[in-house]
Amino acid sequence: MARSSCPTSWGDRISAPSRTHSTRRTSRYRVVRLRRSLAGWRRPAAVAVARTQAIALARHSTIKLLIDSQSIPNLLVPTTRCQAFTMELRQLRYFLAICEHGSIAAAARALHVAQPALSRQIIMLEEELHAELLHRLPRGVALTRAGDAMFKRATEILQCIDQLKSDVRGAQDGASGSLKIGVIPNYGWLPVISELLQKMRADAPNVRIAIEPKLSRHQEEGIRSGELDAGLMAWRSPRDPELSGLSVYVDPLAIAIPKASRGRFSPTSTLQDLRDEDFVMFPRESSPATYDLICRLFQSANITPRITHTAYDIPTLVGLVESGVGFSIVPLSYQLYHPEGVTFVPVTQHDFRLDIEFVWKTTNNDPILRRVVGLIKALLAAEP
User: Fold this and answer.
1) CB-CB contact of 313 with 215 (8 Å)
2) pLDDT category of residue 350 using cuts at 50, 70 and 90
3) Fold observed for domain 179-242+363-382
């Protein structure tokens, strides 16, 4: 039976297969009634009546009725002769099972599927592809050239699907993905960093952690904006509910004394002994919390420092001290770099120290971040 061309509007002719004269008159009469009913489709009642008549007409006859969705929205008419078919993943698995077992019967037993149903699925797959995939032999099956190509591509597709499932589960569990962590410059030696990286490599090898050196102020901005997932910074406001943190290291302050002045000052020297000396400092905007802490230290010693030069970060300050430009107040941990021209004298007051914290945004529920926070808590709990 030749198929009629599909109409694109209500004015197009709806063709029906050859029938008896009475049948054609009945179908034509119903089509006319359907067109008249659809003339008032803007009324909800008319749409309901039109839908009912259209479905009844399509079921009664073999007419394929296609309705323009622009003319009549949400009016779907099922057809009994022409139905869409889409390839399914289970059909690919069925096909590969047949290839593995060499016959449809053996594959049906392995899949716990009825053999006729399995055969039907392969036939539908062949019809979808317009290609014969299997040679049906008296005993078993053999791949055609098209079937061999299908076997290779189906294997790749299912492997990709399995990898997709694994990647999604890993991302959900915090076992894969990436994390950006900011670190104060020259604090990459902190034990918590190396221990965390080693632990994550053992527990979640598919997680990549990127360490980015940033000053505390820039880290805070990055965490708030989402540029960073977390950071190791020198200070945060404990009254800020937007950020959460864990203390991972306490760094006392120290007086950095240039080599040329060692003869006049000893390791027991205090700030009062330096009231007439020149100091180098960093500007407050580079690290407000650390700057304010050092200012409170000078106030506690009842001296006003004579600041002659400034530098943006602490490593540069230590370099200026080493060159003999002046004295400075820096974290004691900077003596680990053993600058030959600088002597570090610890500040004895316990209140003047840098509390290094691992900080993250309180509302950040990223699974990798949760895993990292849990590991840091475990590492801190294991410390003596």
Assistant:
1) yes
2) low
3) D-Maltodextrin-Binding Protein; domain 2 (3.40.190)
Q: Answer whether 93's CB lies under 8 Å from 151's CB.
A: no
- CA torsion 280-284-288-293 (nearest 10°) is 40
For residue range 114-143, what is the model confidence (pLDDT) as tens digits?
999 999 999 999 999 999 999 999 999 999
What CA–CA distance (Å, rounded) separates 16 from 109? 45
72 three-state secondary structure? coil
d(CA 340, CA 314): 16
Q: How many residues does the chain have?
A: 384
Structure tokens at 154: 């189906």
CB-based contact 341:211 (threshold 8 Å): no
Q: How confident is the model at residue 109 (pLDDT cuts 50, 70, 90)?
A: very high
Token pair of 112, please? 């716990």
pTM: 0.61
Query: How is residue 185 written in tokens?
Result: 């410059």
Report CA dihedral (352, 358, 359, 362) to the nearest 10 degrees: -130
Domain 89-170 identical in fold to domain 179-242+363-382 = no
Ramachandran area for residue 122 (φ above 0: left; ψ -120 to 50: alpha; else beta): alpha
- Report the C-alpha gap between 353 and 330 in whole angstroms: 10
- DSSP H or E run through 270: none
Q: Which of 59-63, 264-268, 306-310, 360-364 has the least mean pLDDT?
A: 59-63
DSSP state of 327: B
Task: Please state which of the four CATH numbers 3.40.50.880, 3.30.9.10, 3.40.47.10, 3.40.190.10 is assigned to the domain occupying 248-355.
Answer: 3.40.190.10
Distance CA 308, CA 306 (A): 6
Q: Is the pLDDT of residue 304 over 60?
A: yes
Which one, of 335, 321, 310, lies nearest residue 260 by Cα? 321
Across the chain, mean pLDDT equals 79
Q: Say if CB 18 and CB 61 are below 8 A apart.
A: no
Long-range CB pairs of 213-216 (<8 Å, 24+ gap) are 213/182, 213/183, 213/184, 213/185, 213/188, 214/182, 214/183, 214/184, 214/185, 215/184, 215/185, 215/286, 215/287, 215/313, 216/184, 216/287, 216/289, 216/290
Contact 110, 147 (CB under 8 A): no
